[in-house]
Write a structure and sequence with these properties.
Elements lengths: L2 H16 L1 H12 L8 H26 L19 E6 L5 E7 L10 E3 L3 H6 L7 E4 L6 E9 L11
Helix pairs in contact: 1-3, 2-3
């Protein structure tokens, strides 16, 4: 994952851990309402606690296993790789668009950030300038020509060392 994706997960982990005291208070307040076997507030608070702890464990595991890749260190791009941005042209329509290839945690189609695991991401990885990537889609295969490969990764203030 990129440093931006790592920072976003770290921020989410911090936010979730900060919720622990609030959830513990909600459980204590619900306990004060009497019989736990018929206490909806207690059940809801315990379920929220369980879900939050599961998310915390999941994020901690992803962070522990993460391999950081900084796209800014690639230099001149000759093929599409994780972290690269690529301008593609639909062979049939001539429509062009720019996409960046990141991990699933960073995917945001509205920003043009796609996962390397998505069908289009898989088809683009390893391609060079001028190559045509064939993408199998439910409605039939599409072909995209690689027009440009570059790094457009920008850090946000909170991510800089």
């Amino acid at each position: 994952m990129t440093p931006r994706g790592y920072a976003a997960l770290r921020n989410e982990l911090t936010r979730l851990k900060a919720m622990r005291p609030e959830i513990a208070r909600a459980i204590e307040v619900a306990r004060g309402h009497g019989d736990l076997s018929e206490n909806g507030d207690y059940d809801a608070a315990k379920e929220k606690s369980g879900m939050t702890e599961a998310k915390i464990r999941d994020i901690e595991a992803r962070l522990a296993m993460a391999e950081l890749i900084d796209p800014r260190k690639f230099g001149e791009m000759t093929r599409v790789v994780f972290g690269a941005s690529v301008k593609i042209e639909d062979v049939d329509s001539g429509e062009q668009r720019v996409l960046s290839i990141y991990g699933a945690e960073e995917s945001d189609i509205e920003k043009g950030w796609i996962s390397f695991e998505a069908p289009l991401g898989k088809a683009l990885i390893g391609k060079e300038l001028g190559d045509v990537a064939k993408v199998p889609l439910p409605g039939g295969a599409r072909e995209y020509e690689i027009v440009e490969i570059f790094v457009s990764y920008q850090y946000e203030e909170s991510e800089q060392g």
